[in-house]
Structures are given as structure tokens and as C-alpha cells.
Amino acid sequence: MPSMAIVSRLRRGDLFFSRLRRQLAAAVAACPFTSSAAHDAGTGVSGPHLPVLIVGAGPVGLVLSMLLTKFGIKCAVLEKSLSFSRHPQAHFINNRSMEIFRKLDGLAEEIESSQPPVDLWRKFIYCTSLSGSILGSVDHMQPEDFEKVNSPVCVAHLSQYKLVNLLLKKLEKLGMHVYRHDPSDDWEPDSPLEKRILMGHECTSIQPTNEGVIVTARVHNGTTLEERRLHCSILIASDGARSTIRRLVGVEMKGERGLQELISVHFMSMDLGNFLLKNRPGMLFFVFNQDAIGVLVAHHLEQGEFVLQIPYYPPQQNYQDFSPQACEKIISKLVGWALQDVQVLDIKPWVMHAEVAEKYLTCNNRVILVGDAAHRFPPAGGFGMNTGIQDVHNIAWKIFYFLKEVASSSVLQTYESERRPIAISNTNLSVENFKAAMSVPSALGLDPTVANSVHRAINTGLGSIIPKNMQKAVLEGIFSVGRAQLSDYVLNEKNPVGVMRLEKLKRIFAEGKSLQLQFPAHDLGFCYKEGALVADTSENTQYCNRAGSGRVSREYIPTGRPGSRLPHMHVKPFTAASTEETLSTLDLVSGDKPEFLLIIAPLKASYHIARVILTKAEELRVLLKVCIVWPHCSCQSRSTGSRAELEPWKNYIDVEECKKDRSWWDMCCLTNKGVLLVRPDEHIAWRTESDRVADAVSEAEKVLSRVLGL
Ligand SMILES: Cc1cc2nc3c(=O)[nH]c(=O)nc-3n(C[C@H](O)[C@H](O)[C@H](O)COP(=O)(O)OP(=O)(O)OC[C@H]3O[C@@H](n4cnc5c(N)ncnc54)[C@H](O)[C@@H]3O)c2cc1C
Fold this sequence. Notes:
Keywords: FAD, Flavoprotein. One of its GO terms (cellular component) is mitochondrion. This is 3-(3-hydroxy-phenyl)propionate/3-hydroxycinnamic acid hydroxylase. It comes from Rhynchospora pubera. The chain is an alpha/beta fold. The protein is 34% helix and 22% strand. The chain is built from 21 helices and 26 strands. The strands form four sheets. Strands 1, 2, 7, 8, 9, 10, 11, 17 and 18 form a nine-stranded mixed beta sheet that branches. Strands 5-4-13-14-15-12-16-19 form an eight-stranded mixed beta sheet. Strand 9 (201-209) and strand 10 form a beta hairpin. The protein is globular, with a radius of gyration of 28 Å. 45% of the residues are buried. Residues 55-61, 78-81, 89-92, 160, 202-203, 238-241, 244, 264, 350, 371-372, 379, 382-386, 388 line the site of flavin-adenine dinucleotide (FAD). Residues 55-61, 78-81, 89-92, 160, 202-203, 238-241, 244, 264, 350, 371-372, 379, 382-386, 388 line the site of flavin-adenine dinucleotide.
């Protein structure tokens, strides 16, 4: 039975809604999880119907819950664990994620004040031990990062669990509460679910219905176990790399599996922190010596917090071989002396994959995969969490307009057509970065691909003939022969082999061929080719597309091309009280509501287009603001601005360019006749030049219909 909301929509007889009805019926019939019992909405379902249910309270699920809550969309989060993970995992927050966080009630500023000073993490250091010789050191910050040329905010370095804690505080301020299923809690089955992060709730099955999805959660509080069924319109799978929901809906991952297995050791040592702080501060330390090899991530030198990544070769090596005592020994071998204050907090095995889900939406767009549930990359380059955060920034406004019955469900599909290619591109980049990271051990005569091939050969060939403990001895024997390449005897300036290898290393570092930290072209320059936008067609390729020149570069080049992120430039509102009061063009897009932004120059033809689009947006119930960019020093226009052209509209802002040497329109590859429509996620939906628009009314209809999937 369709819900009352859907019935009333269908009664309106609108073409769109009858299409929606057909889509729903077809999808319910086609979906393998549909049972007739599930159609009977309400049976065994606790609590009222929720618009959005998010499964997984990792950083990605929490950011989405914050965006939706700010937009006024009711949602709840289910989390299987009873407490939030303390394993640091991600730590590098890229530029685009920081821009998104900047709009989340000052989260970016809090990250900046919680992270260690940048001089303590801007370098990657390659050494024979943490106290031994330095093979190379690479600084990953450029002067323009601090000058904020391309973005109003910088990249950051903060452990994932600290970021989650900051997010939880922000969510609490928005009225979202963490609920632990504890006998003392006054939970009533019918009490509202929205604005709750329900801990100890593990999603175990789902059933799509006509109206959405019924989710079954196993609820545990450490002692008791019960089951709860919840009903939602849209189910978001943010349940991580081993997503249960992805498995339940039968979505396959495509790509390369098991690139490398590692053991991750989270430990504290103030002695090590102080030593590195004084002698060689950095973010990543790649240590290669005869006794051990590992990558140390300095999460916070001043707090002595580290994670060590050690290559791991099961089944010859067991997880049990990595006891806290064994890990302490490895740490000492990497440090070069026995630390007295090591406190191992957690030891976790993990496998590196390079995979993207074949589909991001299933069950008539009711089940949506985001974050690691949709893609899992090698951490080289730090794209995992960042890509997930950008996924939910993309989907949040689409969910809003779909649930408000302004957009059709096809707007949700554009999430897949926009984000999946980005995940594929970031996967390829992360694999390339992983290979670049391997160039250093290779130059040292330690080819990791050989280690992996030997391991594979033992597993597939020798494994069937020789006993397991002997396999382990063979593997360790081969590894120690490999590590002998790192002995002082080989790696010294008198040994010709050592000289050759050290020279090769120098070249790798000088030419930027080792692992890099920043990828501005991917971080800020990613561009959606198709989706909720009007792509440039062959007729309008007269716009220069510098970013699309096919040049392989890490450089970010601002552009006004549809699908790109709106370029950043400082502008001054006409209402500014002082000359210092400037805004980034990104600030013109609201962070609190899903509002579109139309950017024009103060020209008659552009004002006409603005008035038409404002009228059309109001008719469709789309939030829209207009920004008029005036040339630098438009002092004479300051008192009246665009009033005469745009009254009685109030939702417009007049700003002027701050720099006389660079025009906004030139930066966007347009002339001042340019018109840009920007989506609530700060990506450009449409661009034109006002003198190219013959019929503004039909153009406005066409553009808004395309963007909203009508
Ligand atoms: C060593 C390492 C370093 C990394 N460094 C970086 C970095 O610097 N930058 C970066 O961007 N990324 C990095 N990553 C990747 C990053 O950690 C992940 O991409 C990120 O955790 C993904 O967030 P998520 O919210 O999608 O999933 P997760 O963080 O995995 O969260 C998923 C949540 O869902 C819960 N859950 C799972 N199943 C269920 C269920 N059935 N019901 C209810 N809840 C469930 C889990 O308990 C978990 O809390 C790194 C990863 C590793 C391993």
C-alpha cells in the first residue's frame, strides 16, 4: 500500500508522479528482497517512518547526518558498535573536505586548532631507523598552500577518531544525541527516532517496500540482545569497507583485491614523540633496516601518538605473532633503541584493496552506498575518507529535493553518475601513489613486488608440499636476504652498489616520484562529466577549458566548466563595513540550506536571465540566490547595487572583485557576459553567456528540469 504522501502526490495527476508510481511498482516487483509481508508497512516496525536512516556512524555517516539535519531532513544513525572506534586510521584531510567542513558550523576552524602545528607534519622522512641516517626527506607544503590561493582553507592532519569526536560535538549542538541501549535509558518503541545515533544497533537485514525500506537491527548493550525493525524512505549504507548492506543487496565490488596485507599498531610514546619533535619532525616515516621495515604515522608528535604499519604475510605469519610485546620489539628495531614508555593500545590487521562498487544505488534508488561501502582504496594519498565526505556532500541536497517532492528520483541516480567515476579515478590515483611509495624500497634493492610474488608462490605452489612452519622459515629466510640489501655494508658511499642506489633515491625524491601528499588537480579539480548539470556541448566549446586540456598534471586550474567546483576568489560584499571584510566566492553558497546560486555580472541581459530564473525557481520551490559580481572598485554603484534591476526580490547579493589584476570571469574562463548556476554542493550546474540566450524562459525551464531530473 502506498503511503498517504504518495497517494496525495499521485492524485495530483502530474506526469512526473505517475512516472514515479510506475518506477516504484516496477522496482518493488524487481527487487529480490521484496516480500509481501514487507508491503504491509507497520508490521513489527518500531517507531514512526523516518525519511532517512543512515547505517554506520563512521565519519561519512556522521557528516551526512549533519548535512541532512541542517537541511531540516529527519534522520537517524544506526551503529553496530557500543562505542566509537579509537583506532586513528585516516588523518589527512584534503582541501575539498576542509572546504565542506568550513560550512559545518566552524568544524574546519576546530580541526585547525586541534591539529598539530603544520611544521610538525609537512614532511615525509625516509631513514634507516628513526634515530639513524636519513635517506631523504620530502616537504609537501608549498608557499601557495599558506597563501590560500586556490582555497580559503588549507589541508589538515587530524586523527579520524578526533575528527569523529569534533563531529559528535557539532551534532549534539544540532540536537542529535548518542543513544546507548542501556536499561537506564527511557527508550519507548514509539518514541521519535530522528536525531538519534543509536549505538549497539547492527543492521542485519533489509526489506524494500513501496514506501522505502524496512531495516532489521540486532540491538545489543553488552548483555542483552533483541531485534528492532525500523522503516525509512531512504536507507544510506555508510557501513564501511565490509558493508553488510552492500552484501545484502548483492552489489559486487570491481577492481583489484588484496594488494597488500598489513598490521596496524596504535601506540603511545612520549619519548619517541619528544625525540622526533626535536630531531626530525614529520608525518610519515618510512624506515628500512636489516631487522625491520615499517611505516610510522606520527598522528601527534607532541602527544606521542603513533600508528605503525607493518607488512603482514598470512597464513605463514599469524595475527597472534603480533602480540603487544612482539610489536614493541619491532618498534625498538625501527627506532634504533629500546623505548621505555611504549604503550600499545590496539593491533589490527587490514587488507588493502582498490575497488569500487558496480552500483551506488539499488532498490529503486532507496538504498544508497556512500564512503567505504562504495569504494575502498589504498590509503596512499589519503583519498578514502575524503572521497566519502565528498560523496555525502553530493547526495545530501539531492535527498532534500527528492523528499520535498521537488525533484524526481532520477536526481538521486545522478549521485552514481557523478561520484562513481570520481571513485574510479581516485582508486587509480591511489594505486599509482602506492606504486610510487614502493619506488623507494625498490631503489634500495628491496623490491616489494618480489616479496609479494614469493609469498604468492609459497601459498599456491610450495604450500601444498611443505609444512606450515617450514613455509614460515622459507618466507622469513627470503625476507632477511632481501633486508640484507639495507646493511651498512651495502648502503654506504664506498660501496659502488650502495652509491648507485643512493643516487637513484636522490633522483626519485628530487623528481617528485616518491609518494606525494597533495594532489590539487584531483582534490579541488575533480569535475562531473554528466549528472545533475547541463554539460558543455560541442556548440559552446568556445569557452576555454584549460582544465580539460588532457595535460597530466597535479596542478589545479580553476574553471567555470559545468561539473567543476566553483573557483575560489576573494570578493567584497557591498554591505561590508570595512575594507578588510571579504568573502570567498565559495561562501556565497549557503552551508545551512540547499540553496542554488546564480552568479552574473551587472548587465541588462544577465539581470533579465536572473529575474526569469528567480521566478522559475520560486514556482518549482527551489531555493535560489543571485550574486552580482561587480568589477574591482565599483564605488559609484555601491549605494544602490542591483536594487533597481532585481526588486522586489531580496535574495541577491552585490559583491565586487577584490583584485584588479585578475577578473572573476577570466578565472572562470568566461567573459563578463557569463552566467553561472551553482548547486548547493558548490559544483557548477550550468554556464552560458547572456547574449547566447534567445528565450530566457524556456532556457530556465530546460536548465532547472535537467538539474532536478524532472
Ligand atoms: C591505515 C589507514 C590510513 C588511512 N588514512 C586515510 C587518510 O589519511 N585520509 C583519508 O581520507 N582516508 C584514510 N583512510 C581511509 C579511511 O579510514 C576510511 O576511508 C574511512 O574510515 C571511511 O569512513 P566510512 O564512514 O565510510 O566507514 P567507516 O569509518 O569504516 O565506518 C563504518 C561504520 O559502520 C559501522 N557498521 C558496520 N557494519 C554495520 C552494520 N551492519 N550495522 C551498523 N553499523 C555498522 C562500523 O562499526 C563503523 O563505525 C585510511 C585507512 C587506513 C586503513
